[in-house]
Amino acid sequence: MKQRFLIPLAVFFVLVIFLAIGLTLNPRDLPSPLKDKPAPAFTLPQLAAADKTFSPTDLKGKVWLLNVWASWCVSCRQEHPLLVSFSKQNDLPIIGLNYKDQGADAKNWLARFGDPYLLSAVDADGRVGINYGVYGVPETYVIDKAGTIRMKHTGPITPESLKTQILPLVAELSK
Amino acid sequence: MKLRSILLCCALMFAGAATAKEAAPMATDVAVEKRMVAISEELRCLVCQNESLAGSHAELALDLRREIRTMIGEGKSDQEILDFMVARYGDFVRFRPPVKPTTWLLWGGPFLLLAGGIVALIVFLRRRVREEAAPRLSDEEHRRAAALLDQSKP
Q: What confidence tier does B20 reach under pLDDT thresholds 50, 70, 90?
């Protein structure tokens, strides 16, 4: 008889466990359908030199990061110091995709907070961003030697995500 | 008072001009706009995840609606436009995701819960019927009960 009263308690605990798992999940972290697909092609003018262009094929044979950023993006500022210090310690090329930004604002921003990028490509109308499935700047893509997207990180990179996810993958791909 | 009415007139004139300007592109192609809205109501705005692409004011939603308009202009079918979105943002972008192994639980879950509820209800009802039928007092117990009831009378 007593055991019957334990049933609601057990149900309650199961619910609590489900809700607790739910709280630790990040609804912004969506699996990208572009993972293990070739990085969408584009040719965009460079931020520093508008007469030059950049295209992902320029970096064929190299492992590189594509970091989507904008001067209006608050979280970009949060991750920026990490990218700057990372770029000083590593040879890994980081390409910036300056997403829906004003050229002058973007240049000022880099002058003020440091420029970790090999170069930044200007995606003024956000069309390239759409092809990469960008929905929450900053976003970072790890692209391998063959030009395939191997990982997508949505939101600011943290020291943990850099250490536990991005760097091991880059090391493996660079072999 | 006079100044105020003049200001009001000015404001109304400008307001009229502003709405006229905004409405112009919509009026040029009602059919395209209608299709765009119908498609974007099926799609989730990934910035504010519980809003549809049709209802969202997020920058990305504006851009994606522009893309949909362009694709309609290029003569693409609704399915092609949906595929374009899914290829970039995944199945999550659709409010009605396709039925496949990863979404079986999503589509079947409510029916599983319903089946579980029906089974629990049947078990409960059967047990109640059995318990109601079971407790009959023996003659000895009847006598004892009567004695106890008598005692309680003053």
A: very low
Task: Tell me the residues of B at the A interface, defined by beta carbons under 8 Å apart.
Answer: 46-47, 49, 59-60, 63-64, 67, 86-92
Pairing of strands A139-143, A64-69: antiparallel
- The number of beta carbons lying within 10 Å of the beta carbon of residue A90 is 13
**d(C-alpha A2, C-alpha B94), whole Å:** 48
Query: pLDDT (tens digit, 9 = 90+) per residue, B107-148?
Result: 999 999 999 999 999 999 999 888 877 667 788 888 888 888
Contacts of A34 in chain B (CB under 8 A): 87-88
- CB of A152 closer than 8 Å to CB of A28: no
Q: With beta carbons less than 8 A apart as the criterion, state whether A147 and A57 touch.
A: yes
Q: Is residue A50 part of a domain?
A: yes
Q: Which residue of A has its CA nearest to B87?
A: A33
**Nearest CA-CA distance, residue A67 and chain B, Å:** 17
Task: Give the CATH number for residue A35.
Answer: 3.40.30.10
pTM score of the predicted model:
0.74
Task: Please tell me whether the interface predicted TM-score (ipTM) of this complex is above 0.85.
Answer: no
Mean pLDDT of chain B: 82
Q: Which residue of B has its CA nearest to A132?
A: B88
Provide the number of structural domains found in chain A.
1
| Residue A111 lies in domain | 31-174
Phi/psi at B119 (5° precision): -60, -45
Which chain B residues contact residue A31 at CB under 8 A?
A: 90
Q: Contacts of residue B64 in chain A, CB cutoff 8 Å?
A: 130
Q: Which DSSP letter does residue B93 get?
A: G
Residue B2 has a pLDDT of 56
Are B90 and A27 a contacting pair at CB < 8 A? no
